[in-house]
Amino acid sequence: MSMVLFASVVRVRDGLPLSASTDYEQDRGVQESKKYLKTLSKKLSQLPDRCTLKTGQYNINFTSSLGVGYMMICMESYPSVLAFSFLDELQREFIVSYDTKRISNNFIQKTKQRYNSPRSLSIKINLADMQTEIKLRPPYQLSTSDLGTVNGFAHQSTSKYKGIAPNQMLEPVMLAGIVSCMLSLLCGSLNLIRGVHAIESILQNEDEDCNYVIAFFLGMAACFYQCYLFAFCTSWRNMKSCLSFGLICLCSMYLYELRNMWQLLFHVTVGAFTTLQIRLRQPQGKAPDYNV
């Protein structure tokens, strides 16, 4: 039978259990999975914020946010979208009641019962949202080798996750940021079109300067790269955006004979505006750990 077997809420920094569902399962496989869950709970700070670990016929799913981890054991056949929707609901309940420092055991039990009867769930919209989110950002698939042993001597393997930055999220997108991104895409598309036309001119007239083609395509790449920097958190993000803006300015200067003043001003202004929006949309600051 496909169902949720166990759930717990833990503190990320040291794996301290804050609450857990009542454990009625005496199956050896479930108890073995709980050992893996305990080891995982002490490694949450080293792992991506959404993961799945397969342990035989059981799956361990977990998410972490704001210094708190939400973990569960379910049958292998249990739908992933329901599993992470269940964890998302636990997270919302904890955020609402964090001042009590412990999420209610009764709530975990009731939520577990609801998710063990998917037909009775009236959360189709939430499931659709979760389905889309999982498609866009699927859980990281762990293996038991990532944990080493489960007898207290688990080895550290943080290098495998270096650069993932699981909790590094950008601030919410504002209207000005969306406008700047659209304008930057427009400028990049215009550069692409002019670059293609320049290639056609070179093929028809060998005396044409091929450097114009390079300038158009470099300008296109810089515009598209600024859109990427606006959307995603990367290292040296502000410096990269300034370098991209500098490249846009250099390409515009080189192409001044092929564009009028208003066109040049438009490309440079859009580049400056997008660079500003990238700088304003910074990674979110260190999240509170809700005093747990």
From TrEMBL:
Residues 8-129 form the Longin domain. It is found in: Endoplasmic reticulum membrane. Its main location: endoplasmic reticulum. It comes from the Eukaryota. The chain crosses the membrane at residues 173-193, 213-232, 239-256. GO terms for cellular component: endoplasmic reticulum membrane. It is a multi-pass membrane protein. Keywords: Endoplasmic reticulum, ER-Golgi transport, Membrane, Protein transport, Transmembrane, Transmembrane helix, Transport. One of its GO terms (biological process) is protein transport. InterPro entries: Longin-like_dom_sf, Longin_dom, SEC22a-c_C, Sec22a/c. May be involved in vesicle transport between the ER and the Golgi complex. Belongs to the synaptobrevin family. This is Vesicle-trafficking protein SEC22a. It comes from Acipenser ruthenus (Sterlet sturgeon). The lineage of its organism: Eukaryota, Metazoa, Chordata, Craniata, Vertebrata.
